[in-house]
Fold this sequence. Notes:
The structure holds two protein chains of two kinds.
Chain A: E1 3-7, E2 12-17, E3 24-25, E4 30-36, E5 39-44, E6 49-54, E7 61-62, E8 67-72
Antiparallel strand pairs in A: 1-8, 2-4, 2-7, 3-6, 4-5, 6-8
Chain B: E1 4-7, E2 10-13, H1 15-30, H2 35-43, H3 49-56, E3 62-65, E4 88-95, E5 98-105, H4 116-132, E6 136-140, H5 151-167, E7 173-177, E8 180-182, H6 184-190, E9 194-198, E10 203-205, H7 209-216, H8 222-226, H9 228-235, E11 240-242, H10 245-256, H11 297-304, E12 311-313, E13 321-328, E14 331-338, H12 349-364, E15 369-375, H13 382-387, H14 389-402, E16 407-416, H15 417-422, E17 432-435, E18 440-442, H16 446-453, H17 455-460, H18 464-479, H19 483-487, E19 493-494, H20 500-510
Parallel strand pairs in B: 5-6, 6-7, 7-9, 8-10, 9-11, 14-15, 15-16, 16-17, 16-18, 17-19
Antiparallel strand pairs in B: 1-2, 3-4, 4-5, 12-13, 13-14
Helix pairs in contact in B: 4-5, 12-14, 16-18
Amino acid sequence: MAQEIVEAPLAGKIIRVHVKPGDKVSEGDLLCTIESLKMENSILAPISGAIKEVRIAPGQAIKAGEGMITIES
Amino acid sequence: MSEWQAYPGGVYKKKEALYRELQQERERILKMGDSQILEKRKKSGQLNARERLAYLFDGGDYTEIGMHIKHRTVHFGLDRVSIPAEGVITAFGRVNGRWVVAFSEDYSAMAGTFGEYHGFKEAYAIQFAMEKGLPVIGMNDSAGARLQEGIDTLEAYGRLFRVQTLASGVIPQIALLLGPCLGGQAYHPIMQDFLIQARDTGFLGIAGPAFVKTQIGEEISLEELCGWKAHAVKAGQTHLVAKDDRDAIDRAKELLALLPSNNRERPPRHQTADSAERVAPELDEIVPDEPFKPFDMKRVIRAIVDDGYFFETMEHHAKNVITGFARFGGRPVGIWANQPMWAGGVIDTHAADKGARFIRFCDLFHIPVVTLVDCGGYMIGSQQEWAGILRHGAKLLFAWANATVPLISVIIRKSYAGAHYGMLDKSIGADFVFAWPTARITIVGADTAASVIFAREIKEAQTPEEVKAKRIQEFSELYENPYRAAERGCVDEIIMPHDTRKYINRALDLLENKFVTPGTCPWKVWKKYANINL
């Protein structure tokens, strides 16, 4: 089983989380939204699979490279 | 000995014997090295060094140079070792009708190891290509330095690096990573213009896993340390990832078709049926009304270039920005754009490096650059500050200010702060700047500006939020548009999105004979070159 940890591409604030552990996602599905420099950044699933772990919550600040969501395929 | 004929006072061989000798010698070299390695490679679907050259050159036909070159080492029994073609085949031939020089490392011949004369062959191929004004393609597949040759190997690397550097900017240099390329073997591809890495077989690294483990105790697989993800995604060193050997060579050919053979030529112009004045109505709908919502810049690129063709480079690295080649009116053009879909299209250290080297490559080879702008600025915060965003960001400014090729900027949405120059504007060197009506060209966003300019007023107001909102709107109305920039001549024309292709093509036609003497500056002061932030 392959695991992929989705990392934040840039620093900012989590404004929405669209998935919870156990959810099935397809590649390209919206996982969460990060607000940074007044822009909304949609974070999409890099692979299809099941959400194993969600380490973020709305309102939380995040750094670039920080792991946010784990997908298991 | 029976071949020798005696005559009074000497011996000689008959011509047929001499011809037979040449035939045998050729057959021995063409058979290449270790048959087991050749067989193993074949089974795994890889091409061998000669098959790669045959696949590269038109009709599989190439002329080899230096076939008989041989090392002169006697230590460690090497005097008894024969290495066909010295582990690297150098050749010239035609690629889609145009002359190209190539060298192909042969893993079957003493694992393609790099020694004095192996290095000589590669350096000579590059020098030859430079002098004749031909692109060079290196096919890399070698176990590394030939340690038995000691200082001779060490010096040979230096001579190769020097000639590559001297050829840089004279001829395009493309490296294909088709096998292991570790240590010194990684350095000569990295100094070339474009790296194409075979997904499952190409490995690049300053040191392989075994060396890393003994020297610093880190345990990591070859794949993770040196595979395509390490370089195409993380490090930003591989420009294109290929499925296999054939795909890597095909990509190199496609790239060559976009480039001139040397810095004295212009890139080849193609015939296209795509009208230069074609309108693209779909672009009028592409920018969302809400300024915080992203859109896909690749859709904009495909809509404006000839036939929707876009050859993207470094697709997987710093995805917040886009680099690649396309054609306008049949002419190759470099595209430098933000991608609002990834990290808001912001310029961070990786993005700045990706862009600056691309722009400088285009400038060296007479390829005009078109930029598509939607950028809120350079990335801020401790991570980027400490990573040196200032000096990385400065590379873009150096690249633009030094560039002599036609430069056209299309401002689609935000052009704020440092991004205004980093993405190309008039003050840093653009020939033309066009803006869509959705453009917001100003020093910072309205909320940031209002909260600084009116800080005191907002703080002391009875209804701070109301005052702040009013001031934001005021600033936005005044500055978050293309008109203030157009009033100062910083934007040449505000255009409807659907007319973008037409304006770019007209500008490129007009700039066809733009000529700036490189290395000169308007103040006529002599210099070697600018001290770009590295």
